[in-house]
Amino acid sequence: MKPSDSRPADSPDSLLTLAGPAEAELKEKRSRFIARAWPVRDEADATERIRETARHFHDARHVCHGWRLGIEPKVVENRNDDGEPGGTAGEPILAAVRRLHLVDVVVVVVRYFGGVKLGTGGLQRAYGGAADLALAGAVVHPVLLGKEYQLSFGYPLQKTLRRQLTLTEGRIRNEQYGEAVDWRVWVPHSRAVAFIDGVRELTADQVKPVLVSPQTRLS
User: Fold this and answer.
1) CB neighbours (10 Å) of residue 85?
2) Which of 41, 46, 52, 59 is nearest to 107 (CA)?
3) Residue 99 phi/psi, 5° resolution?
4) Is the pLDDT of residue 41 over 60?
5) CATH of domain 145-218
6) pTM of the full predicted structure?
7) Any bridge partners for residue 15, and if so which?
8) Segment 19-32 mean pLDDT
9) pLDDT band, residue 7 (cuts 50/70/90)
10) Which partner for 94 in 22, 46, 66, 147 could form a disulfide, CB atoms 3.0-4.6 Å apart?
11) Quick check: do 20-138 and 145-218 share a fold?
């Protein structure tokens, strides 16, 4: 492993997701729209939530969804109308997720048809409104993003390095004390260069942080 002070220009310091699942129901002209929202790890997790919902509401006419995964600006989106007119279900659901700037989230909305046609505008409002209601009842959870470094140094440098870590909003993730001090530290992406430069300057380049993870999430 080599020391690294590079910072991708597109790496944010945090993202917003959900702390847990949420559910809501909306009724429109006798049709029922039941929305479920979850935090998800990846596409496979999102797909399983969609399938789980379809199994649970096996008698529903439509099971539509929208999901967003990844870290800005490289976010991957997916939506599905499941037989509704194009753009009337999946896109309004996805738009509800976008409005809250959420990622790693899937929202599934099932519809029980009530016998009255809603038209394209009515469908868009109903699917989007159901998604909005579910997300309004969910707890939004911030996740911090940054890099992890390994530091090894003599005991006299502890105070100096701890102060530099505090100045750059970093955290000690693991610490071991033997003949030398070994720390694994986390630093926000935007402060990584300042952290590296500060450590080298304060220790006359005796301590060289080694990058061990270019992308670490802190809940």
Assistant:
1) 11
2) 46
3) -60, -30
4) yes
5) 3.30.70.240
6) 0.86
7) 143
8) 96
9) very low
10) 66
11) no
Residues 178 and 113: their CA atoms lie apart, in Å, by 68
Q: Which of 69, 112, 73, 107 is nearest to 90 (CA)?
A: 107
Task: Look at the block and give the residue holding tokens 């440098």.
Answer: 157
Q: In this structure, are residues 6 and 104 in contact, taking their beta carbons and an 8 Å threshold?
A: no
- In CATH, what is the architecture of 20-138? 2-Layer Sandwich (3.30)
**Could you give the dihedral angle defined by the CA atoms of residues 39, 44, 49 and 55, in that order, rounded to the nearest 10 degrees?**
180
Q: Is the pLDDT of residue 5 over 70?
A: no
Q: Decide if 152 contacts 145 (C-beta within 8 A).
A: no
Residue 73 has what pLDDT? 81
The residue behind tokens 């969910």 is 138
User: What is the chain's length?
Assistant: 219
Contacts of 186 (CB under 8 A, 6+ apart): 146, 147, 148, 170, 171, 173, 216, 218
The CA distances from residue 208 to 77, 182, 203, in Å, are 39, 12, 9
Residue extents of the structural domains in the chain: 20-138, 145-218
